[in-house]
Amino acid sequence: MINDGYTRRGVLATGLGAAAGTLLTSGVPARAAATDGNPLTLWYTRPAAAWLEALPVGCGRLGAMVFGGVATERFQLNEDSIWAGGPHTYDSPEALAALPEIRRLVWEDKWQAAQNLADRTFLGRPSEQAPYQVLGDLTLTFPGSAEFTEYRRQLDLTRAVTSVTYVRDGVRHTREVFASNPDQVIVVRLAADKPGSVTFQAAFSSPQSSGVAAAGQDTIALDGVSGDTQGLKGEVRFRALAKAQAKGGTVRADGGTLAVEGADEVTLLISMGSSYRSYKDVGGDPAEVAERHLVRASGQPYEVLRRKHVHDYQRLFGRVEIDLGTSEAVALPTDERIARRRLDADPQLAALYFQYGRYLLISCSRSPGYAANLQGIWNDSLTPAWESKYTININCEMNYWPAGPANIIECMDPLFDLIKDLSETGAKTARTQYGAGGWVAHHNTDGWRGTAPVDFAFYGVWPTGGAWLCLTLWEHYLYTGDERRLREHFPLIKGSVRFFLETLQTDPRTGYLVTNPSHSPEVGHHEDGGENVSICAGPTMDMQILRDLFEAFASASEALGQDPEMREQVLEARSRLVPNQIGHLGQIQEWQEDYRGDAALSRSRHISHLWGLFPGHQIDPRLSPELAAAARRTLQLRGEAGAGWSLAWKINFWARLLDAAEAYKRLSNLLVPARTAPNMFDLHPPFQIDGNFGGTSGITEMLLQSHADQVHVLPALPAAWPSGSFRGLRARGGFEVSLEWAGRVLTRGRIRSDLGRRLTLRTSKPVTVMLDGRPVKAERPEPTVLVLDTRRHAVYDITPSP
């Protein structure tokens, strides 16, 4: 846990009212939560009856959904490398020969012909990617009556432990479950307040091709292989082990059943492994992986396993506290709070949602492990929605929006591993399909790191997915200043840039450099011959992404002292990209041409042409007010409809436009039953985790922004949060920010400078900056802007000016 000079109240106090115990001072809060428990808890008064009521635990590589049943307990299990199919290349051998004709047809506005030709020649082989798949279930069956009382099921976000307690046949039973990153197992603790009362049978099951067996006197095993897909044989073998360690009573494994009788308490360890070593190697030994982790964990007492897990988790989670106020609603179960649709009467629900997003990212994106997919790691199906893969035209990137500002940037490491893999497979796609160097990735990828266009040409012929991913590498540097990692990542950025330098086309009508073929993701611009067409040249999103990619390359090459000649070439190409344009409706144009009719009035949930507003910063109310007004008009034209992730993106858009009321409205619309499940999973519908992460990002953008070389505190603070505080949010430039506010105005804050860089601080009212109790010399270009040089690791106090 970072020591930022504060005396902390401890994580259990997080989320209580700012007027009571603040985040900047010590002391017990005077205004306690309406319940006796931890306000950072999801809790329920009955077992989960459906998957979207179960509670997720995870440690990056392993995940489980915990149902909290009484007669039976279900643990739905995932291991993050179980993908259908096996290693293969998706690239189309026909694409390169067809590319000139596709481009010619686009130049001539023969969109349907171009799109049809792309469908026949340019899509991957096969044209659908592989699904991420479930491993199976471990079910515990308990003897006794069907009656129970005093039931409570909960997930404690401060410790990443889910638990259930109830009274049955006069005995109080308790269970705890957590997924341990240090020990790479899922740990279940079963206990009762009467000796000899823990009795159950445990058995594995799976929809995969699989079998069960005993693996020792106290252990059972599930062995299986992933499913076939698109004519490709499933090749990922897996093993799951469950071992019971009992105090008192007996344990025996009989075939595929593990029986525990008359124990005082039991520690049940679940270990999983697969044969997946990489996207090109599935020759690993799943039994060895599962056994190795099980043996190590089983040699430690439960208390040690739990202590190590909590310490490891809190090292990340405990960096940030947030307090947006509280109300009597905090005393209600979580599902009832969501069902009330009253975020205005329950401000702590927003804080809970924010911290839940951080919990989920810590739980599904850790090393060792792979990047968070469309469902994080939690999936109960062989054929999940959208294959639960990586959609890189928005969803995968959205998963990682909170990592920097919400102070869990280590969670980006698995994403960087994914990008490195894609740079390898994408180099082959660049050569095979474009005849170009560098590397490219389109709108989707999977466990086999496919980079060719897939699905249909309407969705798939979009070449800037890899470019967007490369900008996450640059974001890491902006937050951390880690030159070693930048040097490691620079070849990936350079490879993406090289691809575009070699493939951008000069538009014969405008002279601009453009992508061709491409499209504005998942939005058509014309009905052509009765078919909705999206294929085009130089859509606005591509131009915005490439402007930032080329700028990032130039800045990185300068910081590292590398490739000065290429830097000049890149900056020249950047100057020739299509600029942001305002259309006939006052909107940001989505395409080069100002298309009329249905295209301009689309209500699509995709608003890709506002990428330059967020996550980019090419559109800014201060620096480009005309473009900002056009972005506002675009959002009005797109309407209120949208999936959970789309609403989450709109929170960020409105926050960047400094419109607190509209940002808060979208957050309120997100936290309703149609968009948020009882377990707080985001609903597309169905479940898609990017909305959770986008919502967490949106809350940070309402409280703190750090683009355009300045740190702007409380830029879009809604009226519903008149008083509050936060501790530990991060700003670009290596700053960690903590502050309190009342009457929607900053009352005091602290900024720690990790890198000693120049700070431009923007506030709503004039402030004074102090270091060691003395005023700091600062420039004041505007009444509410301070510019000062900072010292490395120094902590600066911020107070309102007299």
TrEMBL record:
Task: Provide a GO biological process annotation.
Answer: carbohydrate metabolic process
A GO molecular function held by the record: alpha-L-fucosidase activity
What residue stretches are annotated with the Alpha fucosidase A-like C-terminal domain? 705-798
Tell me which residues make up the Glycosyl hydrolase family 95 N-terminal domain.
Answer: 42-278
Source organism's superkingdom? Answer: Bacteria
* Domain (Glycosyl hydrolase family 95 catalytic): residue spans on this chain: 302-703
Tell me which InterPro entries the record gives.
Answer: 6-hairpin_glycosidase_sf, 6hp_glycosidase-like_sf, AFCA-like_C, Alpha-L-fucosidase, GH95_cat, GH95_N_dom, Glyco_hydro_b, TAT_signal
Pfam families this protein is in? Answer: Glyco_hyd_65N_2, Glyco_hydro_95_C, Glyco_hydro_95_cat
PANTHER family reported for this sequence = ALPHA-L-FUCOSIDASE 2
- Protein name, UniProt field: Alpha-L-fucosidase 2
Supply the source organism for this entry.
Nonomuraea polychroma
Q: Taxonomic classification, please?
A: Bacteria, Bacillati, Actinomycetota, Actinomycetes, Streptosporangiales
